Amino acid sequence: MTDMTLRRYLTASEQPANLIFLLEDIASACRVIATLVREGAFAGNLGSAGAVNVQGETQKTLDILANDAFERICSNSPRLAALVSEEVEEVTWLKEPEAGDYLLYFDPLDGSSNLDVNLSVGSIFAVMQVEKDGDRNVLHAGRRQLCAGYALYGPSTMLVLTDGTEVSGFTCQHGTGDFLLTHPKMQVPEETSEFAINTSRYRHWDASIRRYVDECVAGEEGPRGRSFNMRWTASMVAEIHRILTRGGVFLYPADRENRKAGGKLRLMYEANPMAMIIEQAGGAATTGLAPILDIAPTGPHQRVPVILGSKAEVARLIAYHETEKA
Ligand code: AHM
Ligand code: MG
């Protein structure tokens, strides 16, 4: 059994103290959210926002409670200048920004439609830095992320983190609440025979996505000459965790129905952090036409097409997109 706690790991990493404080605050928020999720039914928190309980009070959803936990706990970090949350329309400024201050992007509870059916959900986060004193711009490309990670609230609570050198997985120990390093140097296997996509959207897909999925489904008799497996948990965090563990490819493409909105998943706190993690673990992340991490953002809640996972499959999908475009 490992005795490497998150704190020991972070202090050995030579990151600046203020970044370590922030990452520890994020871990604390995730620990609190894990409890909120586990006890949601007892506390009557599984309802939807805006619903009114029998006392006539407005019910809070776990989405909002999880956002409150991030905001409250991470505001302890002295150099945290701003929060960009899926749950909050405007950027929340905590201080006058100075060069080197941190910007935190997060989705406090991703996949929350899984809550009602007691399946895995997660939190996703990334950290960037203020460029110069007084600069209130939070729209930086994902390449500028210093750290990215997610917490997975599954059978066990895990925190998976990259600081741009490696991807490390920590499991929350029941009782002490410590995050202990259980999955060092996580790597995405280059080849895979598993894909994840919401196939109910087949009728909306572009030719490149149809071609890829059709060829996988055709199995031994098709052009790929082998069988593929499919999974869809409707929780991006659980999906990415599976891909980090045993390989695979995840797709939420732009299609005829969602293209106007840009796709489904959000760039700043879903696609970018996951793209950094997957790239650091030896995988690849693209919109189909460009690397996710190179997108110049246009808004804090911008949506983008997402394809990420094992390198060889992502390369094949890029080639199919290029053929379709030609
Ligand atoms: P959310 O941020 O509103 O929870 O939506 C994001 C989630 C992802 O976790 C998941 O990959 C996807 O939406 C599921 O979409 P679908 O409902 O099409 O299955
Ligand atoms: Mg989300």
CATH superfamily caption of the largest domain: Fructose-1,6-Bisphosphatase, subunit A, domain 1
* Proper CATH architecture of the largest domain: 2-Layer Sandwich
Share of residues in strands: 15-25%
Query: In angstroms, what is the radius of gyration?
Result: 20 Å
Number of strands: 15
Give the topology string: H per helix, E per strand.
HHHEEEEEEEEEHEHEEHEEEH
**Cα distance, first to last residue?**
54 Å
Strand order of the largest sheet: 2-1-3-4-5-6-7-8
CATH class placement of the largest domain = Alpha Beta
Rounded mean pLDDT is 93
The CATH topology of the largest domain is what?
Fructose-1,6-Bisphosphatase, Chain A, domain 1
Unreliable stretches covering 5 or more consecutive residues? none
Major beta sheet summary? 8 strands, mixed
Q: Give the total of domains.
A: 2
Q: How would you sum up the global shape?
A: globular
What binds here, in terms of ligands, is:
2,5-anhydro-1,6-di-O-phosphono-D-mannitol, magnesium ion
Give a quick rundown of the structure.
This protein has 326 residues and is an alpha+beta fold. It has seven helices and 15 strands. The strands form three sheets. It has an eight-stranded mixed beta sheet with strand order 2-1-3-4-5-6-7-8, sandwiched between helices.
